[in-house]
UniProtKB/TrEMBL annotation:
Domain of life (superkingdom): Bacteria
Amino-acid positions noted as binding ATP in the UniProt annotation, renumbered to this chain: K279
Gene Ontology cellular-component terms listed: cytosol
UniProt main location, coarse: cytoplasm
Protein's name in the database: Cysteine--tRNA ligase
Residues holding Zn(2+): C29, C220, H245, E249
Organism: Thalassorhabdomicrobium marinisediminis
Residue ranges annotated as motif 'HIGH' region: 31-41
Annotated cofactor note: Binds 1 zinc ion per subunit.
Domain tRNA synthetases class I catalytic: 16-319
Region (Disordered): 451-474
Enzyme category, top tier: ligase
Amino acid sequence: MTIRLYNTAQRKKVEFAPIDPENVRMYVCGPTVYDRAHLGNARPVIVFDTLFRLLRHVYGAEHVTYVRNFTDVDDKINATALARKEAGAEGSLEELVRERSDETIGWYHADMDALGALRPTKEPRATAFIGQMVAMIEALVEKGHAYAKEGHVLFRVRSYEKYGALSGRTVDDMIAGARVEVAPFKEDPLDFVLWKPSTDDLPGWDSPWGRGRPGWHIECSAMAAELLGESFDIHGGGNDLQFPHHENEIAQSACMGHGFANVWMHNEMLQVEGKKMSKSLGNFFTVRDLLEQGVPGEVIRFVMLSTHYRKPMDWTEKKRVEAEKVLARLYAAAAGVKPSDGVDVLIIDALSDDLNTHAALQRMQQLQKKPAELRAAMELLGFGSPEEVDWWRSDLTMTSGPTALGGESLSELMNLIHPYLDHWQSLRDQKRWAEADEFRQKLNEAGLVVQATPTGPQGERSSNFDPSKLEGLL
Ligand SMILES: Nc1ncnc2c1ncn2[C@@H]1O[C@H](COP(=O)(O)OP(=O)(O)OP(=O)(O)O)[C@@H](O)[C@H]1O
Ligand SMILES: [Zn+2]
C-alpha cells in the first residue's frame, strides 16, 4: 500500500516512506489555549486526525506517534489571568494563568472529541519544555545563528541560507510582503524573537538572558525534537502558519543540525465570504456554538471532509442539511451490524491519494447496501458508532421523502409507527406509568423499541420487527 502526500516543501505529491515504519512520527501545530476553538481551528484537527487514522490502519496503531502541542505561553492568556486577579480572584498570577490554560484545554478536548478526533499520542504544553527551549536557544547563540540584546534573543535570519525555501520565496520578497517588526534590539528587521523579557507581572522563567519567556516558534522546534527526535516524518498545520511560523521552525531546527520534518502538509483555510475565519477578523463562530445549536459533531466532520484539505471551503447551512440527511441514512443502515474485518479497499485508496476524503465519503455512501463494510468504513473515517450516537434516530423521524429503509419508504414506516408512539406518550403524559410500561413491552415484542427523548418518543425497529403484531394494540 503506497500513501502519497503533497509535500509543500517540494510542491508536489510524493510517495510517503517513513524513516522507521515501526514508529511513524507526525507533529502538528496545536492551538494557543486562550479561548474556545472556532470552526476554522477544527479543520486541521479533523484533517490530521484522518491522516493519523490512515497511518494507524496501514502501519498499525502501535506504530504511529502523533504529537500536537498546546501553546500556553501567550499574552492573551496572561491578559485574562490579570483581569481575573484584578477582579479579586484568589491565587498567584502563575496559578491563574494555569487555571485559564487548563480551562481552555478542557474545552478543546470536549469540542474535538465531539468531532470524532482521536486524542494525539502526546499533547505537550509549552510550559513543560522551557528547559529544552533555553538549551536550544543557547546552542543557536553559540553557533552564531542567534544573538542576545537587551534581554531578548533573536534569530539571525540571514545566517540561514535556505530561509524561505518552504514557501518558495526569497528573503527580500518576504520583507516586501510581510509586516516585519522593526525594533532597536534587532540587527535586521527580519530577525525573529527566540526569547523575550518578562515584566514582574507576567509569567517568566530564569534564563542566561534574565527572567523571560520563549517566543512561539522555538516551542515547536524544541518539543518536536524532544518528543519525536531530530528527524521525523510529517509536520502539519494550517497554511496560515507556513510563513513565518514554519519557516522559522525550519530555520531554528536546521541550524541545530536537525533533519526536522521530511513532509510538510498544510490545510487550506475555512473561510467566511472569501476571508479566513479568524479571531482577529471577528468573523468566527465556535465549534461549541454549532454543537449547542444541535449540529452533531459527526455532521461537522462530514462537511469538513467533503472538501479536499488543500482547497479553501465555506461552512454553509446547505452543506449541513445535506450531510445530516446522508449521515442519518448511513447510521440507520449500519446500526446493529458488526463491522467487516477489513476496510473497503477503495476507501483506503482514496485516503492514500493525498487524503482524498471527498472520494472516500462518496465510496462510503455506496456501501449503504453492505452494512458490515459500511460500518467498518465509518469507523475508519471517525464517525462514531450508531449505538453511541443517537441524534440520527430523531433525525430519521423528521426526515420524510423517498428514502428507502429496508423495503418500505421511510414516510410509510413513520406513518405506520407514529400512532403507537403517540399512544405511549399520551399514557405517560397522564402518568399512567404501569399501562405505559405494559404497552411499551408489547411494542417491544413486535420488534419496535421505543424510548423517550427530549424531543419526544423515538421508535427503532429491531431485527425481529413484525408489523402484524402491532395490529390490535390500539
Ligand atoms: N480559518 C481557518 N481555517 C483552517 N485552519 C485554521 C483557521 N484558522 C486557524 N487555523 C489553524 O488552527 C490551528 C490553531 O491555530 P491558532 O491557535 O494559532 O489559532 P488562533 O490564533 O486562535 O486563530 P486565528 O488565526 O483565528 O487568530 C493552526 O493549525 C491554524 O493554522
Ligand atoms: Zn508550530
